[in-house]
Specification:
402 residues, alpha+beta, Poly(ADP-ribose) Polymerase, domain 1, Phosphoenolpyruvate Carboxykinase, domain 3, five-stranded antiparallel beta sheet
Length: 402
C-alpha cells in the first residue's frame, strides 16, 4: 500500500500484509528531527527509528493489528505526524534519442537534488502534503515581513514545515539558526516544493501507466527542427562572449505547451523578442518545463528590478545562472515585452507597481548604462524583465556540457 492515510484512517481494518507507515517529529528546541517507521507482514511488526537522514535502528516482534494501531497512536501523543510513502519506478518513454537524453538528464538531476535534502519517499508524497508545506512557507513569509518578527512563533511554524516535508537538518540543531536560515531561503524552499510536486505528478502518471512525455513532464518535448536548431545554436554562440563553443552544445529540444502558448497569444503582440534566454539550475528544469516560470516563485536568485521573470538577450548572461554537475541547461523563450521602461537605478516592488500603472509592461535594463545600486555602477548585460506570466512562452531548451 502507499500509506496515504490520515489519523482517522488508522484502525485494525487497514493493518494487512504489506502495511507500512512512516511518522516524523521535528522539535527544533529539543534538538530533535526524528523518523519512525512501521511495517506489518504475517503477524510480524517491524519498527525502524532514528534521526532523519541517518541509518535507522530496527526491531521486530509478533503483534496483532490492534497492537500495531496502539503503537502508532502512542507516537501521535508524542507529536509525530504521518508522512506518506510509496515506490518510485523508472519508465522508458517512446521518444527520439535527443528527447530521451534530455529527459534522463533533467530527471536524474532533479532526483539527485531531492535526495540531498528530502528523506521521505517521493512515490507516496501526496498533493495535500505539498500544499500544506506551501501554506507553511506562506505563513512564515507573512510572519517575517517586519524586522522585529516573533522568532519563537516562526520556530514553531518551521517545525511544522519540516514535520510535513521530512528534510535533513544539521546534527546539532540550534532552533534560532535553523529558523533564520529557513526565512532567508524561502525562495529555495519554494523551488524544492516545486521539485517535489513535479516528481510526485510524474510518478503518479507512471503508476497509472501514462508514460508519454506529456504525462511525465506536463509538456510536450520534441526534437528541434534542424533549421531552428541551427538558428538557436548560432544565437547561443554569437552571444556567449566566447564562453560557449559548439562542442559544448549537447542537445537542443523544443517545448510544446498548448495552454501556455494560448495564454501568450491571447495578449496583443507588441515588441516581441523572439529569442531570449533564461538560465537556471539543472535540478529545477523538470518542474519549470512542467509549470513554466511563475511570478509567485520569482526572486530565488535576486530581484534587482522587482519581482518578475528575468531574461537576457545574451546566452552568456543566462549561462551565469545555469548550474549543473553533469550538464547545464538554458531556456529559450519568446517574450512579448510591450512598452519597456529603462531604469537608471534599482527598482523596489513599489517602483515596479508605479511603472506598471504608467502603462509599461516590462523593464529593459541596458548594459553599460549607469545604474545606481548596481555593482561597479553599471550592468554587464542587458536584462529584460516582465511582470505577467502570459508575456513569456518557453520554446526550447539548450543542453550544455558542464
Amino acid at each position: 500500500m502507499n500509506g496515504r492515510l490520515g489519523w482517522n484512517d488508522i484502525h485494525e481494518g487497514v493493518i494487512n500484509d504489506g502495511f507500512r507507515l512512516t511518522l516524523q517529529c521535528t522539535d527544533l528546541s529539543g534538538n530533535s528531527n526524528k523518523v519512525w517507521k512501521v511495517e506489518w507482514n504475517n503477524g510480524l511488526m517491524t519498527t525502524y527509528w532514528g534521526r532523519v537522514g541517518a541509518t535507522l535502528q530496527s526491531s521486530s516482534k509478533r503483534a496483532s493489528p490492534y497492537g500495531v494501531v496502539k503503537k502508532i497512536r502512542s507516537k501521535r501523543k508524542k507529536g509525530y505526524e504521518i508522512v506518506t510513502e510509496g515506490t518510485a519506478q523508472e519508465v522508458e518513454v517512446d521518444a527520439p534519442e535527443p528527447v530521451k537524453k534530455f529527459l534522463r538528464w533533467a530527471t536524474m538531476s532533479a532526483n539527485n537534488d531531492i535526495a540531498s535534502y528530502y528523506t521521505g519517499d517521493v512515490g507516496g508524497l501526496s498533493p495535500a502534503q505539498i500544499q500544506a508545506g506551501q501554506r507553511q512557507i506562506d505563513l512564515v513569509a507573512s510572519l517575517t515581513q517586519r524586522p522585529n518578527y516573533d522568532l519563537h512563533r516562526v520556530i514553531e511554524e518551521v517545525e511544522r514545515y519540516y514535520t510535513l516535508i521530512p528534510t535533513r537538518l544539521p546534527h546539532r540543531i540550534v532552533p534560532e539558526q535553523v529558523a533564520r536560515h529557513f526565512v532567508k531561503s524561502l525562495g529555495e524552499q519554494q523551488e524544492r516544493l516545486r521539485q517535489l510536486s513535479a516528481a510526485q505528478q510524474g510518478l503518479a502518471a507512471k503508476q497509472a501507466n501514462q508514460v508519454s512525455v506529456e504525462d511525465l513532464f506536463g509538456c510536450g518535448v520534441t526534437e528541434t527542427e534542424e533549421e531552428r536548431r541551427e538558428r538557436i545554436i548560432r544565437e547561443v554562440l554569437g552571444t556567449s562572449r566566447g564562453k560557449i563553443s559548439r562542442g559544448d552544445i549537447l542537445e537542443v529540444v523544443s517545448l510544446e505547451s498548448p495552454e501556455r502558448r494560448k495564454r501568450y497569444e491571447s495578449l496583443p503582440l507588441e515588441n516581441e523578442e523572439p529569442m531570449l534566454f533564461h538560465g537556471t539550475k539543472t535540478p529545477y528544469v523538470r518542474h519549470i518545463v512542467r509549470q513554466g516560470l511563475l511570478l509567485s516563485k520569482a526572486g530565488t536568485t535576486g530581484t534587482l528590478f522587482g519581482k518578475g521573470l528575468y531574461f537576457g538577450n545574451e546566452s552568456s548572461k543566462a549561462l551565469s545562472y545555469a548550474k549543473g554537475s553533469e550538464v547545464r541547461m538554458i531556456f529559450v523563450s519568446r517574450v512579448n515585452r510591450g512598452q519597456s521602461f529603462e531604469p537608471d537605478s534599482e527598482l523596489g516592488q513599489g517602483d515596479v507597481e508605479r511603472i506598471l500603472r504608467q502603462g509599461y509592461s516590462s523593464v529593459w535594463a541596458k548594459q553599460r548604462r549607469s545604474i545606481s545600486g548596481v555593482y561597479n555602477g553599471f550592468l554587464a548585460h542587458d536584462e529584460i524583465i516582465v511582470y505577467d506570466e502570459a508575456r513569456h512562452d518557453l520554446t526550447d531548451v539548450v543542453v550544455l556540457a558542464s
